[in-house]
Sequence to fold (727 residues):
Amino acid sequence: MAGTRRLNRKKKDWIAAYLFIAPLTIGIFVFYIYPFIQNLWFSFNDVNKFNIATFVGLENYKELLQSKELWHTFGNTLKYVLVTVPVGLVLSLLIAALLNTKIKGKSIYRTLYFLPSVTMAAAVSMVWKWIYNDQVGILNGLLKMLGLPTQAWLTDPKLAPYSIMIVGIWMTAGYNMIILLAGIQGISRTYYEAAAIDGAGPVKQFFRITIPMLTPTIFFVLITSIISGFQVFDTIYMMVGKTNLAYESTQSVVMLFYRNAFDYGHKGYAAAISVFLFAVIMIITVIQMIGQKKWVNYD
Amino acid sequence: MKKNLKKLTALGLATVMCAALLAGCKGNDGQETETADGKTQLTIGIWDEKQRPALETMIETYTETHDNVEISIQTTPYKGGEYWTKLEAAATGGTAPDIFWINVLHAEDYYEGGILKDLSGAAEELDLDANFPEALISAYNMDGKQIAIPKDFDTNALWYNKEIFDKAGVDYPTDDWTYEDIVNTARELKEAGMDDGVWPFACPVDFQTWYYPTVYAAGGWILNEDKTETGYEDPKTQEGIQCWIDMVDEGLSPTAASLSETTVDTLFGGGQLAMVLAGSYMTPEYMSNDALDGKIDLVEFPEFNGVEPNIINGLGYAVYEGTKNEEAAIEFATWLGSSEAMKIQGESGTVISARNDTQHYFAESITEVNLAAYTNHADVANPLPVCKGAAELYDLEANKLKVAYAGEQSLADICKELKIEADALLAK
Fold:
């Protein structure tokens, strides 16, 4: 008797809980899950501008995997991830550690570093586009003043990818810094006190206490920045035009997707590109989830 | 009791949020076709805010005699493909505007997508062949069906900054100029010594305003009749492109790389360019630029190879296949092609009206400058070459040609590669 009553009450709790999460779940279903499934379906179809789909089986994937453009843009994207993620992580860790010390105007610095993260990527890109401008940009102006040779920051095919990476790092470092800072502040002071009594200096403390204790946070930052690195789009879209000489060396996979879906109207093919990217990100994330057991410290 | 209250709150919150969500997705399924007082309601979709006032005047005039309709304007920016993305989504969902602007780049796709009404009846009523330029009619004629009424057209002309010419003591360009005159004058300007950052001319990798006019004037071609082959390997085609590359090589224009960062319009608008080619659609922007006030004028596109080069391209008014007010929509679209409507559009000075008898209003709208340069030889201008995958073809073309503009490879080599890839694209 008492058992069933408890069960009933439990059931009622479930209903309440489901009702509470319903708005979010419905939203996710309508705006994420359903489009995701539709996208998957589109990738096996030839879809015209008006979403009229004709089934073509694996044709899109066959064409995609043979296309030079995919591997070329994938190479660009991979390079972007391989540079921005490690550099961004080390940089934001460094800033977080510095901003955790007792310095004057700490909150001003924190705000300044976080500012790029709350600014629209499009606006950031426009500003950087002017900074990098080879004729009137302030960067070249500065170089000229110092008597150094000026650079074509956004049109030199070798240099432009790095110029874009710098903007990418600058934009995300603040957000990662805040997360890492929160992680650092969550580490109990007692470890540091004990280490200080044992004679460990600040550098040793950083590497022996802060870093190991911070690994769960670092892991999170690593996963999210790799994912967003593979999805790089807005800065490239805003800063590199079609007649730019650096066009080829800067195009990312998402740019390829965007052009095919919205400029050329090959929606089925574009869907296949996005599924390909999804698969790549998923595999890398799974590998990281397995790999984390070796280095992430959850104690 | 407390439990119940919690549950009630949850239920309430859930309902409110779901309702909000659903309201967001509702769209105009039950699209209003009639207003409260029984008038038929039409919507016209456009992308240029600058042309809105003229359209408002046209609607006002139209509704004076047609008091049973009410017409609203829906503006969506062209930039970034927003207009088309929205229109395509709306057409799929059955909620596109009754009448909308269309351009040649999208005409074929939209026709094949089955979202454009056949306006052949309206075309007959307007007697298109007698009243509109042939290039514009055929651009919107598919399989013998007229899918849009020509609205306006644009051609190109040579603008110049008098202040820079005066400073250098060089004579202004004239309507009878040739390509050689641009080159010689550019040299003179350069030798006369201009301010730092000021250039005599500019040659960006631009098809419609720069190299297509000269390609056709040189006797070259881009697409063959049945759109299965491209003409990049024809030496005449290359002659029409090379003439601009030569000017970059000679230092009479900023490099193409630098022009991809700072556009020619920015340079000319900032008084850093003595001469520039520009489409007629740039007129409102140049004329409203305070820094250029009273300092600029224009002449015809200089002759090339003894021919008046130009590319003519224009928009059309299309009627949505899924419109719920077919009769009223077609009637309004037909009126938009009438002399009365075209006159209002032309007088606004924003675009050149397509109808032959109303083309002159554009030139007369601003008398301080020689706007007739745009219309003088419109009758011999070539239509913009288009095909189904035109957007992709133009991208490919620009991507290849910029290498030749940068001087990294010869134009002949680039065109060889370009032809192979472009022909493959056409075969798709």
User: Anything to note?
Assistant: Chain B has a mean pLDDT of 90. DSSP finds 20 helices and 14 strands in chain B. Residues 40-153+313-377 of chain B form a domain with the D-Maltodextrin-Binding Protein; domain 2 fold (CATH 3.40.190.10).
